[in-house]
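QUALITY CONTROL LOG
STEP: pairwise intake check
CHECKER ROLE: data steward
CRITERIA: each record must contain a sequence immediately followed by its structure tokens, with no blank fields

ENTRY 1 OF 2
RESULT FIELD BELOW
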Amino acid sequence: MAHKKTWKKELEKLQANEAKALQGGGEERLQKQREKGCLTARERLDYIMDDGSFVEINMLAEHQCHDFDMDKKTFIGDGVVTGYGTINGRKVFIYSEDVTVLGGSTGKTHGAKIHNILKLARENMVPVVCLNASAGARIQEGMDNVYGITGMFYQNALTSGIVPQIAAIMGACTGGAAYSAALCDFVVQVEKTSHVFITGPAVIKEVTREEVSFEELGGTYVHSTKSGVVHLAAKDDKECLDLIKGLLDYLPQNNQEKSLKKSGTDPVDREVPELIDIVPIQMSKVYDMAEVIQAIVDEGIFFEIHPLFARNIVVGYARMGGQAVGIVANNPRFLGGCLDIDASDKASRFIRTCDAFNIPLISLVDVPGFLPGVRQEHGGIIRHGAKMLYAWTEATVPKISVILRKMYGGAIPAMGVHQIGFDQVFAWPSAEMQMVGAEPSVKILYRRELQKAENPADFLDKKIEAYQDTYLTPYHSASRSVIDAVIHPKDTRTRIIKTLMILEGKAEPSRPYRKHGNIPL
């Protein structure tokens, strides 16, 4: 007798399948996740998405592997929850990997669900949020992993520069999964409960005989201070998701739009006289550039990116006159504000991200030059420093530079002048700008005279003073239109905002056709 369908039976079957999908790897494994202080994959979605906005897709997908008893280990959803909805009223696509299902490992079906989300985000011009908790490739599926894992890289790369991609490391993120996160625009990692690396401690011990813990190898501290892989560190899952919400607030939906302008209570014409107290006029004295930034931006709110990595340069987002801006600033508190290999990488990546998503750039300059030394030269400071020159030149968004105290040598183009594509360049009255400092310049220019002088020290002092009065003033640069204006420090905020307003409709002249440029490594 043929099976007779009824609406009741079919709807009960659907309800049963959906209930299984909601259970992930089972209540016992879900509870263990909570006991570690972590949210489950679905709890993370509930927390970050607007109430009732999440729509799940591919909920009932299952892996198709039958080897190694995998036919006995099927879980509806295959270890990743995918869908779309809104965050603070803005559309997003999102996926959340479920570590309770086969360790969150990525097989063909699991990967295909992620490919689809990345592709849909790109096609619909909507940001994508990637909540990663994966043990990497699912070894039981053999070469099907080429499809599952590699397809993620392909979609990440195609989506790059079209819509914002934000990755969160909220558990294990190893092997191929680590590369997918690295291909996103921003990476946020949760402390203690998450690790990201290509090869784990066991493999490293086997191959190199090195012994290292999970935390020492791929913990948040390592990646936010040493490797630079992680842009933001979070104490727990909720803070991680809150950081993603805060970051999205500064970003547009896609590369065809601008960030939403917000009205606030901070007056556009607010003066900042406190800047002369924050920034010592003596070049040798240090200060924290973060205080300068907080003084000039709206409400003193600065969303710093990479705060613990390459601290001699500061990058991050703020609003000025309600408009989202990206800030790149030297920090004399660390390495005297010198540019080095890591600072160059950090800045150039940030510059390109801002340019990709139409966010104007502000450069706050107090730099003695590139950090000298054998280690820097052998480490490739030439090619790393060249990235900043490339990034500024490539960027077509409004670019404004303010020179606070000094700007020397190769750091001049690296921090922003007209000749590298800046729209406006301002300087404080005490600013010094020159390719070489006063003392070494005088020693070169007056080498013979110094040798013949009756009192070389007195001769040197007088020539240094004359050189400083002639060349190491902003007025020398202003007379040659290297800078557009010498401004009072208290007017810094107002001048930047007025310039942003006039540059709002900036149209970059067309450039010669090219498939793409070739940025130095």
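ENTRY 2 OF 2
RESULT FIELD BELOW
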Amino acid sequence: MTKKERILELTVKLDEAARAYYQEDREIMSNFEYDALYDELLALEKETGIVMAGSPTNKVGYEILSQLEKVDHESPMLSLDKTKSPEDLRSWLGDQKGMLSWKMDGLTVVLTYRDGVLAQAVTRGNGTTGEVITNNARVFKNLPSRIPWEGEVVLRGEAIIHYSDFERINASIEDVESRYKNPRNLCSGSVRQLNNEITANRNVYFYAFGLVSAQGREDHNSVEENMLWLEEMGFTIVPYVMVTGENILEEIRIFSEKIRQNDFPSDGLVLIYDDIAYGISLGRTAKFPRNAIAFKWADEEAETSLIRIEWSPSRTGLINPVAIFEPVELEGTTVSRASLHNLSIIESLALGEHDRIKVYKANMIIPQISENLTRSGGYPVADHCPACGSQTEIRMENGVKTLYCPNPFCSAKKIKLLTHFVGRDAMNIDGLSEATLTKMADRGFIEELYDIYRLDRYQEEIVGMEGFGVKSYQNLIQSIEKSRKTQLFRFVNSLGIPNIGEANAKLLCNHFGNSLDTLRQAPVEEMVQIEGIGEVIARSVVDYFSNEHNEKVIDGLLAYISFDTAEAPVDQEKSLEGKTFVITGNVNHFKNRKELKEKIENLGGKVTGSVTGKTDYLINNDKMSSSSKNKKAKELGISIISEEDFLDMI
């Protein structure tokens, strides 16, 4: 293969990987592999002078594929050049003073405050055009809604989800595991929601890393002074230290020791000159600014032998492959297993029995296989589910090969389904942990979901179980009784329908007038008319309700469960049907915007996060506001109404 052919091959391969990562929030290769191929391509381009039009070294990101409003950045948001050598970092800094900080691994966001109030939040997007996520930014856990500064302030930072929240979300909503492999992907999906309630529930945090401009502070020439000023304004800033050529190597070492204790995801460090004017004077290349540089640790690798691949079934039927290898020491801990995510990755690594492999910790935390030295290939894929023994199926989803158990009665699915059913966002039954449910299922107390409501038949046996007693049993029965009256969306969410969580359950129930019978009979064609419900989701729902066993389970549950319809009075429930609202600004008559949103939905209306041609009304008590939503509504001829107007309307 010629060097030109290799350049073309690498360009296509990296373009596919970047498109999957940035547009579709999925991974088809590890960060380690991507970085290695990127460096190889960059070296070949420098050597030959050939740069393909689609080369990742010649562009930033991808065009955005979403329904969010798009805006152009006032100045391009370029990527940073990078190095893995601490000595290179010291050489780059020279005799200047610099600020060394974490390179947070989330979603870069630009915030604009006017007269002390958040006016706009925009994602980095492709570096030139970003998506407007103002409605979502307002529910970031640590973002000030007002700052003590009257002039316009523009700053940049990273929206992230902490590891602890990432693990909590994956544990409670197992089907997300197949979509979100790391906090960065989960954060990207959370920040770019049309419904900011989902964003709020995901616990997104914002860390400021740079001031772009602030009216009234134009004469300040220190990056650190600007960071400290942002902290004074109420922002959480990225942890940093000031460095010179004398102490930078020691500070890099100290940063490396902190990684394993951090609850936030990072993929390296950023070094920027403290002297702003000096940094600006250096200009920029077509792709990189010259005032800052990124540092990524050279991953510590260890060679070991593959022992086997374990196949781990989940509630959704997805069977996840996990590599088990001879234990090795990495970054101070013993590692013996690493997720392989899907069959495509197994094939790309050409894994075979007892292969010699190299493993590392991505970002010094997550074990991954970086290379297969022997590449014998042909590792046998499990042809039977390890939980129930059913024959497995290989499926292609979004270009990724995955393994599934098709058995709807799979025991692994059953325990996970039972755990999901009793969860806080579903039927909210205390006292039934996954371990307890497993014990009860093993003893034959629970075979189907409705058996939970018949546990009083086993009072004596349950009281005698380890960890139980009379009081524990009584508390459990009380919690079960309390759950018998619930809201329909909670019940629908509890069933474990693929692709249906709390938010989508609400959309479906509201659309069908909180009638389970209507929902169960609804065709795909009607469901896809609901904003936010696509064909894949609609097909999952229809397939679920048309399954004979599922019908039996639902009918069995309905013998014990009734639905609370108090929130939707019969004489008013359709008064806003077909109307779409957007809510912005402060509210006076309602407790908060969420309460106003629920009122609209209970009356048959819809609430979206951005003003589009489909919007009927923008609710804003400040009709003369110069906010982007007001401007957009006026451009489109959409009525701007106050809360009083809305109350008159209903």
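INTAKE CHECK: passed for both entries
DESCRIPTIVE NOTE, ENTRY 2: The longest strand covers residues 318-330.
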